[in-house]
Write a structure and sequence with these properties.
340 residues, 6-stranded mixed beta sheet, 7-stranded mixed beta sheet, mainly beta, Jelly Rolls, single chain, 2 domains, 2 helices
Length: 340
């Protein structure tokens, strides 16, 4: 794949730990030919920070052509070989490709963009922040699409607003739940469910944390996503985040008040689609679909859960015209890594 890209000069506006200061980064512009897409494009920038950075708000500014992007912070010591600026995600540092799960566990998720939302702010409550460790880098995996008849030039900017350490009361960690086993039947509405019992996590870690921010991720055939917690007392459902009645383009937002998981051992992810095509649509970029709920919590660990490989979506039933697949809870895979 060939693209035109360069890393623009970026400004680290003075005082990483000063309230109200920003760190601004600009990438591109990236040229996208008519009727094409770029699925092997990563960007990276080194922060050169001597002290931790406590990020309370993140803003991404793009343009038509950016489909979605996922941003991570990673320690320079183990990610120094990945080129500064734009590079092939598959080529990576020449010895290994860029891997989002590895970046999540080695550093952390910084920002997840709502699908095809070109300008977006991810803001946390006062005193809450993502902690970026000293001597870190930012690496992002980008997906660009041009469905039109004219070429596109796509600029991209990322701005971080840190707060002083003394004002930081809550350190946030990522929680990702996904279902890679989706297989949308042709000419059908379909729904895919997966449940995970957090009490069965490896290591027996506590799960009574709170969710502060949540984001749904699916593509054009997605109709709705629900991320729910199941009460231990009666099996009832409390919704953490849903796009079922969403108005507007952004698929994420702050939870006010934060959702307290106390009394809920199980979480459930449900994604609903409408597939008008003649083909079964599976997980992937381009013509594929996705089913991800991403959130930030006050847990001391970053978590991933769900069906993390493509396979059997589980048995199906038809409910009110919707073909509904539910994976057995035993298929859920969980992993976690400490952030402190």
């Amino acid at each position: 794949m060939i693209w035109k890209a360069q890393l623009s000069t970026f400004a680290l506006i003075a005082g990483c730990g000063s309230s109200g200061s920003t760190l601004d980064f600009r990438f591109g512009p990236f040229d996208v030919a008519p009727g094409s897409e770029q699925t092997d494009l990563c960007v990276a920038v080194s922060l050169h920070n001597r002290e931790p950075i406590y990020v309370n708000s993140i803003e991404m500014a793009g343009a038509p052509g950016i489909h979605h992007s996922n941003w991570f912070w990673v320690p320079s010591t183990r990610w120094l070989g990945f080129p500064e600026g734009a590079f092939s995600c598959a080529a990576g540092d020449g010895t290994r490709p860029f891997d989002q799960q590895a970046a999540t566990f080695d550093g952390g998720v910084l920002f997840a963009q709502s699908t095809q939302v070109w300008d977006e702010i991810q803001a946390f409550p006062a005193g809450s922040a993502i902690r970026i460790e000293p001597d870190a880098r930012i690496i992002a995996d980008l997906h660009l699409v041009n469905a039109g008849d004219n070429p596109l030039s796509v600029p991209l900017a990322l701005s971080l607003t840190p707060i002083p350490e003394r004002e930081t009361t809550t350190i946030l960690a990522g929680f990702a739940m996904e279902n890679l086993s989706i297989a949308l039947p042709p000419h059908e509405m379909s729904r895919f469910n997966v449940e995970c019992d957090l009490s069965q996590n490896p290591g027996g870690l506590p799960w009574n944390f709170r969710f502060y921010h949540a984001l749904a991720h699916y593509h054009a055939l997605g109709v709705a996503l629900s991320f729910d917690a199941i009460r231990d007392s009666d099996g009832g459902i409390d919704t953490i985040w849903t796009t079922e009645h969403q108005i507007g383009d952004e698929l994420g937002g702050m939870l006010d008040p934060p959702f307290d998981l106390t009394g809920h051992s199980k979480v459930r992810l449900s994604c609903t689609y409408d597939n008008p095509t003649d083909h079964t649509i599976t997980w992937g970029n381009a013509g594929g679909e996705m089913c991800i709920a991403f959130a930030y919590t006050d847990a001391e660990y970053a978590w991933t859960a769900g069906l993390i490989s493509q396979g059997d979506p589980g048995p199906s039933v038809v409910d009110n015209g919707v073909v509904e697949f539910t994976a057995p809870m035993s298929a859920c895979v969980m992993a976690h890594v400490g952030i402190n």
